[in-house]
Every structure is written in structure tokens, then in C-alpha cells.
Design brief:
globular; alpha+beta; 11 strands; single chain; two-stranded parallel ribbon
């Protein structure tokens, strides 16, 4: 079976989440943990001298996009203030019908025919509206002495009537978005109107409202990018059409602005207040005219802890853990007694797979909170829980299980058996049990946790899905392959729908779904899925993150199962070297890769070399996991086979 990813959960008072790698040593699935919570190249002589930072490409991209968003947002707002000073459009609130807006027919042929028939009336109606506002319909739109471009080659005109939406695009949209219901296509007939000033805007808006069945007024309620326009659905001869209403000073920046909208839309998702807070942080922390390298270095030598903390909060939401670590280290220097800063630092280290440092920082917080708050205080238990997660991430599963048991008992007593933090502790204890091969006990606890989470949080909640993932993993380890495959597939589909295809949790589920291909001995398909997952993880987590390395291991394993042993050995060796550097030579995950590399070497007939490596792996596993652990026994069996081959 491939290495699995279980999910455990660590705690900060805002839960983000990390992960852990590895089940049995034949490839990598994902055991999942509930967690809350870099490599830096900083040299500093003192806080008053120059700090040199070697930025990673992803961090440079994040900072430049933050600057770009700030710049285009300011341009939008300044343009709106210049041409729309009285804010007349604020008198019109967005509205829509009570039900779903629909066309009078749901047959694609009839709908396209009626739309084509209504097009002349639609055009004449809009020409009259535009001319009544004092605009020339065919006049090219200008702003700041330049043509405003609709496409790379085509400028906007005061009135632009678009071509009817093509049949192919209609069919694609209905299939993807509307469940086969063609009556929901209300933008087959479409146009845009661009005005130059507020009087023209109000004239056109009032005329369109006479025909409108729906209005989305982003002049009154602009999105986080600052871009403002209005989207009218109007009815002409029974057919619903779409009209976009723009101001030239704003639409001139639309293309540049949209790039940043695409980059940041998930970051600014959520409730209005959360989005407003992030915009406030953006405006406070980011100078869109500064060189990103210089600006960050200046911030890192600043004594203004509030600005640094605000910047930390901003980039934490973006998941840039490298930059978070830079900022957090400076905060710890400025506030050496602040446990909150140390807790943030520990979580940032966890998120990058720096588990030894994370454990030390969590332990420091735990000891301080025991002294200040008492052993059973919820905040003390949070620090204990996070420290134990870091221990488990280093492969210290037996110690982790003991401490999770202690934390669980305290939480049941102080918070109750169905409190979410109590359930997180159960889920994490399941991981420790799986790692030690105690599958029967793990099944009882994982099923108990999943059932309670379904009842209290709902089936689609991320925490519930982590528990489902771990239960599927227990099924797999017990040999209940059909049930494991069904549960992994269910978890993957729910995560794609609720989190998106490239979310780390979704990728972990994809990795576990590759089990199905292994069980069916479809190794070519398994390799394709594993490579897809590995590439996505490199992009989202970084090449050296433990989860990315587990995915790399799986690629090597699928290659070996297809008989390409020389290539597999090369891949395993690259993965092993990276794991030794990242996790340490005796980490259970590193030993899994060593074991599988040795087996591939044996398969190529180099039995002497394989024996040496398997002996090393057996001794390390006995020391780390115990003589009766399934991984230890697997290495012993592989060694015995290799010795027989060697003696022949």
C-alpha cells in the first residue's frame, strides 16, 4: 500500500492545519492531523543595522501581488472619487427575484432562436438609452488620453453589443454550473455601456431600471479590489438579457485589477467584516511604490511591533510560512516575554515541517502556562496538545500516545466529551495508534470521533472529513480494502467540492485514493495520480515539506511496481537524502524510504548492498518503533529474503 496521510489537529485559537506522513513502507498515504497553529537566510549584526533577507520566489510573488492589489485598488478608488464625487449610484440597491432568474424556454435550440430574434430590439433599446444620456454609441472610450481596451486589439465603445454566446459555450456553462438547465442562461444576449461622468451614469442607470429584473450594483458595494460597475439583467420581448454599466475612469484599470482578483479571491473570501479587516491591514502594511526586498528589510529592523504583527496576520492568512517565520522571529525579539508570539512561532515552524524546533517552542509555552494557569486550564492543554503533535511528527509515537491520553482525560473533565478540542485529541491519538500498528483500538476511537463530529459539526466540515480520512486509513491497515477505498473516495469528493481541488487536504485525499489503483494493480494510473499530487504539493507546500516528500516517495514506489527498478532506485535515493536532511536519519518516514530503496536494490540483483541497507533499517526501526511494530517486521522479512538471495 502507498504511504498514507492521517490528520491530526493542533491548536491555536484560530485553527489552521498541517499534516503528517506515512503509514506502511510501500508508498505514502496521508494520515491527517488537526492542527492549529522557515528556511530563512537572515543575517543581522543588531536590530539597528541592515538586515539582509534572501527571499524565496513564492514570497516575492506574494509581496509583489500585495503591492499590485494595493496599487490598482487605489487607482480604482481615486478614479471613482474623481468622476463619481456625488455617489448618485448609492441610491440603487442590488435586487433579484425571489426565485432563480430563468428564461421562458429551456430548450437550447428554441432559446438561441428567440435570442437571435430579440437582438435588433435589444440594440435599438440600448442605442436610445445611450443617446438620451448624451453619448455617441460608436465612439471609442478614452481615459487619460488613451483608448480603453476591451481586448488586446479591440477598444471599448460607449455601446458595445456583444455577439450571442455560442452554442458550445452555452452547453459548457449549463453542464458545469446549471445542472443541465438551459433556462438559467440569462447572458446569451449581452452588451456593455461605458460612461464618462456621473450625470451620464445616472441617466443610463435610471433608463435600464425600467426594464430590469435583476441588479448587482457594485458601485454601491464594490468587491475587495475596489472595482465598481453595475450588472443589469433586463427583459426585452420576454427574453432576459445582460448589460454591464461601466465608468471609463474605472474600467480603464479592469484588466490589471482582475489579475489580482484571481490571485486573492480565496484570501478575501468570507464575511464582509473579515474582508474589511484584511483590506485595512493591506493598506496599513504595504507600500505599493517600494521595492519589496528593501521594504521587508526595513520592516524587519523596525521596532514597531504592531505593524510587524499586522503584516504577520496578513501573510499568515495567505499561507506564506517562510515570510511568517521572518516576521515572527522579529516579534519574538521585540517581545521576548510574549507567549502569544512564541505560540505563533511554534505553529509557523509546524507548518513548514520544522518539528524539532516546533516541539521546543511548544514545550516552552506549555511549561509557562502550567505555572501561570494550572495544568488543567484549556490554554495549557492547547499548548500540551500542540507539543504532542510535534512529538508525533518526529516519529515519537509511543510518547505521543501517552501524552494525548493525558490531554484527552483533562479535556473530557474540563470541556466535555463532545467539545471540539476533546474530539481533536481523540483524532490525534488515532494517528499515534495507527503509527504503532494498534489498529483495532484505532478503529474504535476513529469511528467514535467521526460519528460525534458528523452529529455536532456536519458531514462536510473539515474536521469531520479529517476523521473520516483516518477511519478509512484504519480500514486499509486492517485489510478491509473495499471499505477503505469507498471511504477515501467519499472524502476526496467532499473535499473537492468544499475546499477546492488544490487545497492541501484535497491533495492528501487524492493521494489516499491512489490506493484503489494499487489494489487493482493499475500501477500506471497510480503513477499518474501520484505525480499529479506531487506536483501540486510542490507548488502549494514547497519541495522540502514532509508531505511533498511523502508524495515523492509514492511516485518512486509506483515506478518500482512497474518493474523500472533502476529509475525507482534513483528516485528513492533523492527522496531519502531529502528526508534525512529534513526529518533526520531515524525518523520513521525516512526509514520507510530507506526500506523501499533497499528492496528495489535487491530486485536488481545487488543483494550484498541491499543486505547492508536493510540491516541498518531493521536496527533503526527496532530502536525507534520496537521489535513487534509492523514496519520493523516488514524490514526483517525483507532482510531475510535478501539474505537468501545473497546466499544463492
Amino acid at each position: 500500500p502507498p504511504h498514507t496521510h492521517t490528520h491530526t489537529h493542533a491548536h491555536t485559537h484560530a485553527h489552521t492545519h498541517a499534516m503528517k506522513v506515512e503509514k506502511q513502507p510501500k508508498s505514502s498515504a496521508f494520515v491527517e492531523n488537526n492542527d492549529n497553529h522557515t528556511d530563512t537566510s537572515i543575517t543581522e549584526a543588531s536590530t539597528s543595522t541592515v538586515i539582509k533577507v534572501e527571499l524565496k520566489p513564492d514570497t516575492i510573488e506574494n509581496l509583489e501581488n500585495l503591492q499590485g492589489l494595493t496599487r490598482t485598488r487605489n487607482n480604482m478608488l481615486q478614479g471613482a472619487e474623481k468622476v463619481l464625487p456625488k455617489k448618485y449610484m448609492n441610491q440603487f440597491s442590488s435586487f433579484s427575484p425571489d426565485g432563480i432568474l430563468r428564461q421562458p424556454v429551456d430548450n437550447i435550440d428554441s432559446l438561441l432562436s428567440r435570442c437571435e430574434n430579440v437582438l435588433p430590439t435589444f440594440r435599438d433599446t440600448l442605442i436610445n438609452i445611450v443617446e438620451a444620456a448624451g453619448l455617441i454609441p460608436d465612439e471609442i472610450v478614452m481615459w487619460d488620453g488613451k483608448e480603453v481596451m476591451l481586448t488586446l486589439e479591440t477598444p471599448y465603445r460607449c455601446l458595445t453589443i456583444g455577439p450571442l454566446k455560442s452554442r458550445e459555450r452555452c452547453e459548457e456553462k449549463v453542464a458545469n454550473d446549471y445542472g443541465g438547465d438551459y433556462s438559467r442562461l440569462v447572458d446569451i444576449v449581452r452588451a456593455s455601456i461605458v460612461v464618462a461622468d456621473e450625470d451620464q451614469l445616472i441617466s443610463v442607470a435610471e433608463a435600464l431600471l425600467k426594464h430590469a429584473v435583476r441588479l448587482k450594483n457594485r458601485f454601491k458595494e464594490p468587491p475587495f479590489t475596489g472595482y465598481c460597475d453595475s450588472l443589469f439583467n433586463i427583459e426585452i420581448d420576454g427574453i432576459i438579457c445582460e448589460v454591464q454599466l461601466h465608468a471609463s475612469a474605472i474600467v480603464a484599470h479592469k484588466e490589471d485589477n482582475h489579475k489580482y482578483y484571481c490571485f486573492f479571491r480565496s484570501f478575501f473570501a468570507g464575511n464582509v467584516e473579515a474582508s474589511k479587516k484584511r483590506i485595512e491591514l493591506l493598506e496599513k502594511c504595504v507600500d505599493h511604490n517600494a521595492n519589496v526586498q528593501t521594504a521587508l528589510e526595513e520592516m524587519l529592523k523596525s521596532d514597531d511591533g504592531e505593524v510587524i504583527k499586522d503584516m504577520f496576520d496578513l501573510v499568515k492568512e495567505m499561507g506564506d510560512w517562510f515570510l511568517c517565520e521572518l516576521l515572527c522571529r522579529r516579534l519574538c525579539e521585540l517581545r521576548p516575554e510574549c507567549l502569544g508570539c512564541k505560540n505563533d512561532m511554534a505553529n509557523v515552524l509546524d507548518s513548514q515541517g520544522k518539528y524539532v524546533e516546533a516541539e521546543m517552542m511548544h514545550r516552552l509555552c506549555w511549561e509557562a502556562k502550567k505555572k501561570e494557569l494550572g495544568e488543567e486550564h484549556p490554554d495549557t492543554l492547547t499548548s500540551l496538545h500542540n507539543m504532542v503533535l510535534a512529538l508525533g511528527n518526529q516519529g515519537n509515537y509511543a510518547e505521543a500516545e501517552t501524552l494525548y491520553q493525558q490531554c484527552w482525560e483533562f479535556r473530557k473533565k474540563t470541556l466535555g466529551e463532545e467539545h471540539i478540542d476533546t474530539l481533536h485529541t481523540i483524532n490525534n491519538m488515532v494517528e499515534a495508534l495507527i503509527r504503532q500498528g494498534e489498529y483495532a483500538k484505532a478503529e474504535v476511537l476513529s469511528r467514535q470521533c467521526w460519528e460525534v463530529m458528523k452529529k455536532t459539526l456536519g458531514e462536510d466540515d473539515p474536521d469531520t472529513l479529517r476523521s473520516l480520512n483516518n477511519m478509512a486509513l484504519v480500514m486499509d491497515n486492517q485489510g478491509n480494502l473495499d471499505e477503505a477505498e469507498r471511504l477515501h473516495q467519499q472524502c476526496w469528493e467532499l473535499r473537492k467540492r468544499t475546499l477546492g481541488e488544490e487545497h492541501p487536504d484535497t491533495l492528501r485525499s487524492l493521494q489516499n485514493v491512489t490506493y484503489a489503483s494499487f489494489h487493482q494493480e493499475n500501477y500506471a494510473k497510480a503513477e499518474s495520480l501520484s505525480r499529479q499530487c506531487w506536483e501540486a504539493m510542490k507548488k502549494t507546500l514547497g519541495e522540502e515539506h514532509p508531505d511533498t516528500l511523502a508524495a515523492f516517495h509514492n511516485v518512486a514506489h509506483t515506478v518500482s511496481r512497474q518493474g523500472n527498478y533502476a529509475n525507482a532506485e534513483q528516485l528513492f535515493r533523492l527522496c531519502w537524502e531529502a528526508m534525512k536532511k529534513k526529518l533526520g536519519e531515524e525518523h520513521p518516514v525516512t526509514l520507510n524510504t530507506l526500506n523501499d530503496m533497499a528492496v528495489v536494490i535487491d530486485d536488481q540483483g545487488n543483494h550484498e548492498k541491499a543486505v547492508v541497507l536493510l540491516q541498518e533499517c531493521c536496527e533503526a526501526r527496532k530502536k525507534r518503533l520496537g521489535e513487534m511494530h509492523p514496519d520493523t517486521r516488514e524490514s526483517q522479512d525483507a532482510l531475510a529474503k535478501s539474505l537468501r538471495n545473497f546466499s544463492v
